[in-house]
Amino acid sequence: MNGTSYEARAEPRKLLVDFLREDLGLTGTHSGCEHGICGVCTVLFNGEAVRSCIMLAVQAEGAEITTIEGLAKDGNFHPLQAAFHREHGLQCGFCTPGMLIAALDFLRINPAPSEEEVREAMSAVICRCTGYRNIVRAVIAAAEMMRAKP
Amino acid sequence: MGNHRHWGRGLKPAKFAYHAANSLAEALSLLTRYAGEARVLAGGQSLIPMMNFRIATPSAIIDLNRVPDLAYIRRDNGIVRIGAMTRQRKIEFSGVIAETLPLLRDAIKLVGHLPTRSRGTIGGSLAHADPAAELPMMLQVLEGEVVARGPAGERIIQAGEFFRSPLATALTSEEILIEVRFPVMPGNAGYAVEEFARRHGDFAICAVAAVLVREGERCVKARLATSGTGPVPLRLKAAEAVLEQKGLGNAAIREAAEAAARAVEPMSDQNGSAEFRRHLTRVLTGRALRRAAEGRAC
Amino acid sequence: MTGARHDRFVGQSILRREDRRLLTGQGQYVADLVFPRMLHAAFVRSPVAHGRIRAVDLSRAKTMPGVVIALSGAELRRLLPPVPDTQLSLPEKWCTTVPHKLHNPQQPLLATDKVRHVGEAIAIIVAESRYIAEDAAELVSVDFETLPAVVDAEEAVKPGGPIVHEQLRTNVIGEFAIAKGDVEAALARAPHKLKRRFYHHRYSGIPMECRGVVGVYDQRTDSVTIWSSTQVVHWLRREASAILDLPEGRVRVAAPDVGGGFGVKGHVYPDDLLIPFLARRIGRPVRWIEDRHEHLMCSTHSRDQTHELEIGFDNEGRILAIRDQLVADCGAWNPIGIGVVYNSAVHLTGPYKVDNLAVSARLVSTNKVPSAPYRGAGRPEANFAMERAIDLVAGTLALEAAEVRRRNMIPASAMPYAIGLPYRDGEPIVYDSGDFAAGLEKALAAVGGVEPFRRRQHAARANGRYLGLGISCYTEGTGVGPFEGALIRIEPNGKIHVAGGACAQGQGMETIFAQIVADAWAVNPEDVTITLADTAGISIGFGTLASRSTVTLSAAIHYASEKLRKKVMSISAQLLQRAVVDLELRDGGVAVVGAPERRVSLAQVARAARPGWDHGRPAGVDPGLEETHYFEPQTVTWTNATHAAIVEVDIETGRVKIEKYAIAHDCGVVVNPMLLEGQIVGGAAQGLGGILLEGYTYDAEGQLLTGSFMDYLLPTASDIPDMELIHLESPSPLNPLGVKGVGEGGAIAPPAAVANAISDALAPFKVEFNQTPITPERIVRAANQF
Q1: Number of CB atoms found within 10 A of residue C63's CB
Q2: Residue C48 has what pLDDT?
Q3: What is the 3-state secondary structure (H, E, C) of B156-218?
Q4: Domains of chain A by range and CATH?
Q5: Is residue B207 situated within a structural domain?
Q6: Mean of the per-residue pLDDT values for chain B?
Q7: How confident is the model at residue C86, as a pLDDT?
Q8: Element of type H or E holding C638
Q9: Claim to verify: residue B171 and residue B139 sit in the same structural domain
Q10: Percentage of the residues of chain C whose pLDDT score is greater than 90
């Protein structure tokens, strides 16, 4: 979990998102629908974005997971966090962890996306506050920062 | 899940026994042991939501994710063999697939979103057999086949026999789908997939996929399939025949589109009436054929 | 106070202080709160839309290991005091001015004798985990006598059908009528008339965070703390204190970070009261977090209005008279009373001069989820009817729709303009400021102008492509009373602490109010703490809804600051041995005008102000540096906007692509332009979702067909276009900062703008889109494609 090893027990039916939040106390990942559609619960699983509400905790055996708590380094914002802040890419913040992780995965695959590609990729997470305009701007700004300083 | 009538049940799964199978043999023997009361867990992108809603309440889950050698993409002369547990995301970015099955690569970008493709598998999608999914349509249009293994051994099931009814396939409750095979697309094939969905990534209200091989003005081979327009993904054979007989001019394409619209048996639901789906079949068949006929356009 | 505003921060796009915790996963939403020995609740909910509860058998649930308590409605009723009237009432002045009828059936905390909508709570299970509670809920069996359901408002008013609240003997639970001029005569004289039925369907806010409540009982002090994802902490405290039979001073209600509200969290729900009641009874913290399925079937819905509108006009397209009969389907209960529907009535004519108007309205009970305000709160429904009607008037006369709007708009020179109807606060509606016509022109210019568009449209049609231009204009009353409270205190370290009755759900209130206080006190925003959404911060407050918090809290802060400043100045005068008139606030202290090095810091003033020995206060000045003010606005202040949309419609598939979307918006003085734009775009995205994607649907038996995100479709980043925003600024004369409300506006106009655009695109087919939502199939059918 964000670079630290954990050992735990979980009931088979315990959802990964609940395990992260309750058993590990990492409440940064949120639960928005519990049926795998809204994307708010997105985390990195072995480096790839996944929806943690439709995975079982027991599937995390041996895995490397990154959540929003693992983005900043030594208190310094990741470029995505900095860009979301500057571009006002969040309002209530509830979808933001999912947005950041989905964006992180996407930019690793497509480091220089067009605006349309960003919109398509970010359609993986639903936001009810921003209307997406500033989220798209933030992802494009972050992509630029990340290309400049890989 | 669509119009399912939930009545206030929660969103946590019921209890089940969990088995992380270490081998295919183990998975199969567990399936037999549970006699229909167990479900196989592949990507989980369809199964776990159903379990969260308690629409699916299996006594046991047999997790295939630790079984070795079920995920691969191999070209074997003229056949592409894809392990059933191959993630959709791998297929999306595979150089082998881009070269041998470019239509599959195009279609897979329509399946959900990147985070669902990180976990979703090709075998899981085919075995789940949602009538509005894209991959079952691909199996049909690319004339693929699946390999199923059960207690009695292995058997091959052709695309045309695999899908029985919505969410039901030819697999028995003791079989596991282990491989998907596609013949390599002809190098000079034109192809296209057209989908109408309410939003990007949603299931198809209507989708049509086409592969065309032309020789001059003639169409020597036409393959058309559709999704979202009936209980199973359908090969549109009457439409194919029109093209193979009459070529790829505008009139032939219009006639083929009419034939496609007549062939489907769509249902009505919240996202569209049967008549609308039939109409979309006509429209999208025409569009897919025009694009495919132009060459390898996307 | 003259000359005291520095305006260094108000008007700047200061980045948000909320962001750090939210971006790093350190936000605290109600589901993140953990208390020792906390228990988890789940509800048993009705599977039928209408039925009598004959028996509830909890026996198997009660004995499941891990279950602590299981209660039915009947059992709960024996334990509870009488449930207070939780409905939001309108002021006396409105009640005596507008003839109306309003029934007020009170929803019990758990259904007892009857269930009235699918999803209504029948029993509650409290257990060691939510998983166990849901297992136990499955073991509960309920014996119903199923009754026929009524799911259509127009059916519900017909005699002989099912009655939702039988004691009322009617499903019409509210009605009113307003009128001005002489509609009958004006319609009779009108050279042209048209009459249409407009329907605005049922959809709602769907915040990404569902609701949730945690009740924590403190045995030592016999007090209860309630954490709720709510917009109205003080209102909840008032009701909870009655349910708990505790004085308000021993009930604290706070909302932590809230993941969106949009009105859906803007009233007190039964579970807000039941959960803390059980927490106290059990003696352990109890938490209930709504899941998404529950949210869709028991958090309030909205919209769902039918307007039968008749409009009389002359040959120039000037409106002579409007008669509107509206029916609102308010579902099984009515927590917000008549306010939303009354909003529809008085916002109907918007920016237009209409001298003869008659609106009659009925609220109707049906066996659906209760309705409550959702961003716009009755205005989108009225806007849809009016703006579609304008386009139809234009079509009848072969005039440009924009031109008909121009001819009817109240000019800026007419401000302040009394429209001749009372607002829901009882005060006569007076448009205080605004230039509606300028907004219209700017929005049209932003989409390239009408004439150039018509040329493009014509050329496109020749190529079989269908482009359309749609406009919608509205006015909105914002900053409604009754009041909001602000407490300002200067701390011993000189920092400024402000507590207010507003509640935030992502608007950036901590940031904007810090900007406002910083300017009022000549400090930096970092020197200001803003505490909101906590009854422990300020004892009387109203809460956030109806686009009111910027207006009302900024004014309360202003007046509290004025009072406190007097004190600060007299103490400083003593400390500096100068007259008050020679002093000014400067750089976190008070300084002599023209000699800034002669100063005292606010910390020094705070020390001097303290009670007891060796204080530094002049005679007659009371101790402490804290003031509270409740701003009671006389009435609302009026914003306006024009939305303009250019769409391309694929008539073969029904797909609508929004090519351009522009919003010319006036919300008075802008505190933070970046946050303002966020509110407008966010609201507009919800409006676009409403017209094209979202919707609650029921079958004939009252089963909710849209119980998951598979069925209730929310717009994603691919569905919402970029938008161009143009700002106009007509400062409000009704509050010290000149601000107006902005939270809701964006959601009002998109349905009409898009419906007008699609109708314009499909003009060759002579079709009208007078119902929402506009689905692909409806478009394809309208264009005779099959």
Answers
A1: 11
A2: 96
A3: EEEHHHHEEECCEECCCCCCEEEEEEEECCCCCCEEEEEEECCCCCCCCCEEEEEEEEEECCE
A4: 16-70 (3.10.20.30), 79-148 (1.10.150.120)
A5: yes
A6: 94
A7: 62
A8: strand C637-650
A9: yes
A10: 96
Q: Is the pLDDT of residue C359 over 90?
A: yes
Q: What percentage of chain C reaches a pLDDT higher than 70? A: 98
Over 50: is that where the pLDDT of C717 sits?
yes
Whether B85 and B39 map to the same domain: the answer is no
pLDDT digits (tens, 9 = 90+) for C630-648: 999 999 999 999 999 999 9
- Partner B contacted by C105 (CB < 8 A): no
**Which residues are bridge partners to C359 per DSSP?**
C178, C324
CA atoms within 13 A on the CB side of B296: 12
Model ipTM value:
0.98
Whether B221 and B277 map to the same domain: the answer is yes
Which residue from A minimizes the CA distance to B202?
A37
Per the structure, the count of domains in chain B is 3
3-class state of residue C94 by DSSP: helix
Q: What is the mean pLDDT of chain C?
A: 96
pLDDT at C84: 65
C19-26+481-631 is classed CATH 3.30.365.10: yes
Asked if residue B90 belongs to a domain, the reply is: yes
Phi–psi pair at C586, nearest 5 degrees: -160, 130
> What residues contact residue C670 under an 8 Å CB cut-off, 6+ apart?
C11, C676, C727, C729, C739
pLDDT at C244: 95
Q: What is the mean predicted confidence (pLDDT) over B89-101?
A: 98
Cβ contacts of B172 within 8 Å, gap of 6 or more: B150
Same domain? B120 vs B161: yes
CA distance B287 to B295: 13
Suggest the residue from B91, B113, B116, B121 to mutate for an interface test with chain A (most A CBs closer than 10 A): B113
Dump the DSSP string for chain B: -TT----S--SSPPP-EEEE-SSHHHHHHHHHHHTTSEEEESS-TTHHHHHHTTS---SEEEE-TT-TT---EEEETTEEEEETT-BHHHHHT-HHHHHH-HHHHHHHTTSS-HHHHHH-BHHHHHHHT-TT-HHHHHHHHTT-EEEEEETTEEEEEEHHHHEEETTEES--TT-EEEEEEEEPPPTT-EEEEEEE-SSTTSPPSEEEEEEEEEETTEEEEEEEEEESSSSS-EE-HHHHHHHHHH-SSHHHHHHHHHHHHHH-----BTTB-HHHHHHHHHHHHHHHHHHHHHSS--
Q: Are residues B271 and B249 in the same domain?
A: yes
Q: Does B198 touch chain A (CB under 8 A)?
A: no
Given the DSSP bridges, would you call strands C286-289 and C39-45 parallel, antiparallel or unpaired? parallel
User: Which residues of A fall within a CB distance of 8 Å from C710?
Assistant: 35, 37
Confidence bin at C87 (pLDDT 50/70/90)? low
Report the distance separating Cα B183 and Cα C370, nearest Å: 56
In this prediction, residue C90 has a pLDDT band, given cuts at 50, 70 and 90, of confident
Best residue of A53, A56, A116, A118 to probe chain B, by most B CBs closer than 10 Å: A56
The pLDDT of residue B296 is above 70: no
Contact with chain C for residue A52, Cβ under 8 A: no
Ordered DSSP codes for C96-116: HHS-EEE--PPPPSS--SEE-
Average the pLDDT over C685-696 and give the result.
98
Question: In terms of pTM, does the model score above 0.80?
Answer: yes
Q: Look at residue B161 in the predicted model and tell me its pLDDT.
A: 98
Confidence (pLDDT) at B270: 86
Under CATH, what is the fold of the domain C302-480+634-782? Aldehyde Oxidoreductase; domain 4 (3.30.365)
For chains A and B, count residue pairs whose Cβ atoms are closer than 8 Å: 91
Domain coverage including residue B135: 73-183
- Chain A residues whose CB is inside 8 A of the C674 CB are 88
| C777–B8 C-beta distance less than 8 A | no
